[in-house]
Design brief:
The complex is a heterotrimer of chains A (495), B (229) and C (157). Chain A is mainly α and 495 residues long. Helices cover 76% and strands 2% of the residues of chain A. Chain A folds into two domains: 138 residues, no CATH class; 348 residues, no CATH class. Chain A has 21 helices and two strands. The longest helix of chain A is centred in the middle third of the chain and has 32 residues. Chain B is built from eight helices and no strands. In chain B, helix 4 runs parallel beside helix 8, helix 5 packs antiparallel against helix 6 and helix 7 runs antiparallel to helix 8. Chain B starts with a helix and ends in a 6-residue tail after the last helix. Chain C is mainly α and 157 residues long. Chain C has a single domain, classed as Helix Hairpins. In chain C, 61% of the residues lie in helices and 0% in strands. In chain C, helix 1 runs antiparallel to helix 2 and helix 2 packs antiparallel against helix 3. Chain C starts with a helix and ends in a 31-residue tail after the last helix. Classes of the chains: A mainly alpha (495), B mainly alpha (229), C mainly alpha (157). Chains A and C meet through helix 5, helix 6 and helix 9 of A and helix 1, helix 2, helix 3 and helix 4 of C.
Chain lengths: 495, 229, 157
Amino acid sequence: MTNVILPVVLPLLAAFLLQPLARLSGVVARLLGPLVLLVGLVLLLRLWFAPDTEPFTVALGGFAPPLGIVFYVDQLALIFAIAVPLFTLLFWNWSADAYEDSQEKARQDALMLLLAASATGLALSGDLFNIYVFYELMAVASFGLVVLRGTGPAQIATVRYLLLSAFGSVLALVGIAILYTQTGTLNLAQLGQLAPTSLHGPAGLAAFGFMLVGFGVKAELFPVNTWVPEVYATAPARIAGLLAGLVSKLAVLVVVRLLVVVYQDTAASQLLLVLGTLTILFGEFAAWRSKDFPRMIGFSSIGQLGIVFIGFSIPGPWGMLAGLAVALHHLLIKSALFGLANRWSGSLESLAGGARSAPIAAGLFVLFALSLIGVPPLPGFWTKILVLTGLAQEGSGLHLMALGAILLITAIEANYLFRFATKLFSTSDRPPASHGLMDIGAAVLIGIALVAVTIQIDPVGDRLRAVARQAADREAYISTVFPAEPTIAAREDRR
Amino acid sequence: MRNLAAILFTGGLGFLLLVIASQLDFGHPPMVVGQEILDVAGDQVGAANIVTSVLLAYRGIDTLGELSILFAAATAAGLVLGHRHGDAPSDPEGGFILRAGADLLFPLLLVVGFYIILHGHLTPGGGFQGGVILAAAFFVGVLGRPAKGLNHDVISVIEGLAGAAFIGIGLWALFLEGEFLKPMLDKGTLGDLISAGTLPLLSLALGLKVGSELAGLMTSLSDTEAREP
Amino acid sequence: MIDLNFVTVLYVGAIGLLVIGAVGLVMCNNVFRMVLALVLAEAGVNLLLILAGYRGDAAAPILGFGPEGAQMVDPVPQVLVLTAIVIGVGVQALAVAVLVRVFHAYGTLDMRELKAHFEFELAAEKTTEPPRSTEEPAGGRPLSPVPPRPHPGEARS
């Protein structure tokens, strides 16, 4: 069971060794990355299919929490930890372009491996500062990947993204500092134990606000999501797909863990609800007005992430299930759409008539658009219904406003997505180029997965419900990390 | 207009922070985890410097992540700055004082850097601090004589092998004792140079990696040539 | 009492550094000054973190250093700050590297000019309309639209 550390450590080892290895043997260097990711994937899948679904913890270095760092492995963490190597392999750069410097491919692969390692660690970690370190690693690796094309606009977009992300990290660290001053610990479970007494006042809520804004940079939360359109327009499409799909989900997971384990009060959920509503309004209106394909789906991704946040802000297992469902659905759809965007990277006008030259891609786009809007029986419908009914059940003014906002933007989504679809199916003199095998392959796989989920919606729904119930159980989290521990007060008395 | 918004935003931020800070208890931290570490670290890990024992033993994974961040930054910077062609013109040599001073400082900085690295578990210091001094030792030479430059091949090999050594020690602990990065080897007596198990080895790997990485990064920053139009 | 005031001054100083960094990041026009403001903000946060573990009249957390049985400060924030400083150095170095490339490409580090270049080139690449029309008269606007000009940094790959 301690092998769960290997999917985090092995990609790091491979990344360190890639550059010296590339000098010795190019073939080994090219294969090492995918091989290591495959090994990690197999290890995690074995855990997922194990008969025992109880969450367990791994104390790193043999030091029991709260002194040491603990990895908390429950079904929710496993879902996202499995998604990491899966999607990294899907978006891997298999091309064999000639590189000016023999080390360049090795450097790119090393950055992808670092992204994968940090994302896996982020999914599994149970210690607040460990989460911060893995989050920073994810950020720095993504800076390097985003500037890959080397064009002027790409570099400017990277600078703005870097400055915003670094400032967000500073704010997150302020939140962690305030948290530490109030409670004296960094272990999530112990923070959950101490939260009712120490984090009740405005200091605790301010710490949550700072950390939300700080970790929200990657999760494309309002107001720190101004980097999204610039980066998605200039980065290579597969990197943008990785960022929009995978990286943002992991940032959301961090916020969810904080919310569930540490901050159970309604003020934190309300803050999340308000920011989520502003996010979807900002994202979808901008998507409506956007003029080129990558930015359109980039803004739409902001909108969907707002719905994810609104889902998670609903208290209890219902909110967990709603948020989880929307998040997974968005992970699939956005990755596929960015796969399509690799070839369709121009303005919307220039893509007119695309259905003639790339019928499969156009058909897939219509499928994904229908699922995004929420047309039954596609999974998107079920995810949106979960969020809407959850909001209706809460019934307070803020929740009903969020409900109205989601209905409004669904209409807007339908408008701009079908506007693009009609453009695709119209006739034109200069249809765009057709897709390469790699780009279509990823989208086709995801399309097949989507249809499979549609057919099998019941078992998938039940499994997700079980995962959500386990994840929303705060007492189980604390008692798994501290098995026979009495409360902190009793421990103090013992000393 | 933009200035006004900026002033309002930062004024609000400053006010919020001051309000928060006034609620915090100065000078009396809760010491929940800290006190326990202070009590047991000497016996459990065996290093006199408790900060190093937290850095390399209790929170070893954080240190691994941190040196991966430095590696990622250096790799990304290498990607961005590009490859330097051998025949490109370089900066002129530094003056006599800089050259002579660099030659004089080089062995001193090396000694101080290695001293700080190796004594990391006894006195304030450790891998990062010593590694930065090592990087400075090499970079001062590059400042004095830019034409000589640094051998980037050697740097990247040292970087990779040192990082792999850090993980290798952790994996060795994983295979032998079942816990990644568990301190191994004999703890020795508190206060000796050879004590605290694998901690000095981890410090050494850390110092070499950080030193070579920062030296390479700073050299490639100063070496960057303009791209051909 | 003296001790408490000293710590208060440090806290206010840390928050002040943070606010100065935030102001600089938001208000500066030169990108390099934004990076320097980021450095200041990170310094402020690191100071704030260390203060979270400060105890009046306590010794450094090294066994055998202070008098026997003395209280020691909290070692955990010091480790956190070590990590945070190194992370900050990495990010700042990467930022400066990208800035070097941007300067080689555009010859300027002014954020407004860079944004104009960005919009223009992106519009040209994606064959969309640039956000500001070049047919409008140039009077009355803070910055005239920057016409595309050949620059040293061309697209790689």
